[in-house]
Amino acid sequence: KAVPFVELVVAHGSILTILAISFERPLKAGYKCTIRRAMVIISILWSVAFVATIPVLFGTELSQARYNDGSLV
Q1: Residue pair 53/10 in contact by the 8 Å Cβ criterion
Q2: Which of the ends of the chain has fewer CB neighbours closer than 10 A, N or C?
Q3: How many other CB atoms are found less than 10 A from the CB of residue 59?
Q4: CB–CB of 24/42 below 8 Å?
Q5: Residue 8: closest CA among 44, 48, 43, 41
Q6: Each residue of 41-51: pLDDT tens digit?
Q7: Which spans are transmembrane here (predicted)?
Q8: Residue 72: phi, psi to the nearest 5?
Q9: Could you tell me the end-to-end alpha-carbon distance of the chain, in angstroms, rounded to an integer?
Q10: Does the pLDDT value for residue 63 go beyond 90?
Q11: Which of 60, 42, 43 is nearest to 5 (CA)?
């Protein structure tokens, strides 16, 4: 259950970070982004990614299957 959850958190977090960077660029002239502000924005984005991915934990199911050669996966 943890693997799909972590994969999606990282994917969502990366997408939101790139989105934040693309929004910040046009505003650069009248906007001063400090390191503290950037850290706050990134923390909020990764928190949103984490919370948005929590339903995956409840929708993911671990099951075993047997391949044609008899190996268990």
Answers
A1: no
A2: C
A3: 8
A4: no
A5: 48
A6: 899 999 999 99
A7: 6-23, 35-58
A8: -95, 130
A9: 15
A10: no
A11: 60
